[in-house]
Amino acid sequence: MSQEAKEKILEYMKSQKKTKLYFNDLCKAVPDLKMREAKKIINQMVEEGTIKYWSSGSTTMYMLPGVDDVGKEEDSMK
Amino acid sequence: MALKHKTPMLDELEKGPWPSFVTDIKRVAERKPMAEDLLGLLEMSYEHKEGHWKHGGIVGVFGYGGGVIGRYCDRPDLFPNVAHFHTMRVNQPASKFYTTEVLRKLCDIWEEKGSGLTNMHGSTGDIILLGTTTDQLEPIFYELTHDLGMDLGGSGSNMRTPSCCVGKARCEWSCIDTQDITYDITMRYQDELHRPMFPYKFKFKTSGCPNDCVAAIARADCSIIGTWRDKIRIDQEAVRAYVGGELVPNGGAHGTEKRALDIQKEVIDLCPTKCMEWDGKNLKIWDEDCTRCMHCINVMPRALRPGLDTGATILVGAKAPILEGAQLGSVVIPFIKMEPPYEEFHEFVEKMWDWWMEEGKNRERLGETIQRLGMKAFLEATELQPDPRMVNTPRYNPYIFYDPAEVPGGWSHDPKAYRERHHA
Ligand code: SF4
Ligand code: SF4
């Protein structure tokens, strides 16, 4: 189950134009999962290095590795 | 010592009688090239009226999804020493009690591995260590955890580092053990603190009494404010001593001279619910009408004290953003005992988070989700009963609706027939 969910999330990320996605966006890829379960899987993916965090300090987003992650600050609010 | 960069605009900020952050940074710049380049970069930002920082990349140390705010300068050619200038948020001890030994060690670590600049404390409460490079993050984290027993705090879409007032450690008014509550939240919700999962930030703040010294009611998504449900304790002898000028009113906060307290003008008339009376000898309080505003207790601390049946009021939805949209918390649990192991509180918190995670939009604080979907939806999700004490102003926030299924006998309503009688 979790392997399947991970693949769905990865595919979803690759299909998106935006490079940075919110947690809620990733959950759209696995609509059948409860948020807390999705969170566990997404955190596992971060640990495994298949996806990575991006943070402005106030909000956290998710990216694929290999994409340039140091963007101009989009929102300087902390 | 002459600094590398000319900073005429920053220098303006050193004028006047108040302390200046520019002077502080200059002092550090004499020994730290990082602080020197920081001044140069800041001056350039003032000139261009544009920021020169880029964010992103790093969010924490290994296994953490928060606690570090990655910051890079976009002109490393001009300011190589601030090419990296990451912030580390360190979880402050509850109520910010330190030993000087810990503070010295913390500064030593930062002097050696960071810019030497700190911000004690950020508005969430964390110790903010300003400016270090990527290669130093893990070594600093190692020393913080191993030598000081300290951890990183929250950032991003995490639960943020909980904070509290001094509570029972130093304050006679505290109705709850604020440090223990903070510690319990911190330890129970480690995952939420270190790994982002929410639509946006989430803050807990705990004040021991309604004086609310940490301004929980204005700043925390979930505010825990100590209160009592029995009677204010009155020492009539001491009330008469205040009136007779034998004791200093307000605990000396507004002047340490002994003077006779005008109890009618300074206390009775200022009671917001007018539930007090003074007959020249005895003070009477109708506690059922008292809103626990603390005014009378603040004025006569030797004579009046909070009751003994203590607990907390829980409010949700406050936020104090920098630009706009400040909002105070709304009462959702008028009274809860708040004693270990805090099971009732945990259950509430987890139901609240489940709802916000499902319903909250990206970058929407809990208070905004409640505003958008209604307090009724929040109360249903958290299985709380509506209560008159949740009404802020009658007819202003009437979110309590009756459901025919829950009223004995029920009723029926035919909207079509209604519209025939009442044209829209
Ligand atoms: S909030 Fe109340 S208990 Fe806490 S420090 Fe302030 S006055 Fe004391
Ligand atoms: S605490 Fe406030 S509301 Fe209660 S009796 Fe004192 S002044 Fe009145």
UniProtKB/TrEMBL annotation, chain A:
Transmembrane segments: none annotated. Residues 5-66 form the Dissimilatory sulphite reductase D domain. Gene3D superfamilies: Winged helix-like DNA-binding domain superfamily/Winged helix DNA-binding domain. This is Dissimilatory sulfite reductase D (DsrD). It comes from Desulfacinum infernum DSM 9756.
From TrEMBL, chain B:
Residues 155-383 form the Nitrite/sulphite reductase 4Fe-4S domain. Coiled coil: none annotated. InterPro entries: DsrA, NiRdtase/SiRdtase_haem-b_fer, Nit/Sulf_reduc_fer-like_dom_sf, NO2/SO3_Rdtase_4Fe4S_dom, NO2/SO3_Rdtase_4Fe4S_prot, NO2/SO3_Rdtase_4Fe4S_sf. The keyword 4Fe-4S applies. GO terms for molecular function: 4 iron, 4 sulfur cluster binding; dissimilatory sulfite reductase (NADH) activity; heme binding; metal ion binding; sulfite reductase (ferredoxin) activity; sulfite reductase activity. GO terms for biological process: sulfate assimilation. SUPFAM superfamilies: 4Fe-4S ferredoxins (SSF54862), Nitrite and sulphite reductase 4Fe-4S domain-like (SSF56014), Nitrite/Sulfite reductase N-terminal domain-like (SSF55124). Residues 83-144 form the Nitrite/Sulfite reductase ferredoxin-like domain. GO terms for cellular component: sulfite reductase complex (NADPH). Keywords: 4Fe-4S, Iron, Iron-sulfur, Metal-binding. It comes from the Bacteria. This is Dissimilatory sulfite reductase alpha subunit. It comes from Desulfacinum infernum DSM 9756.
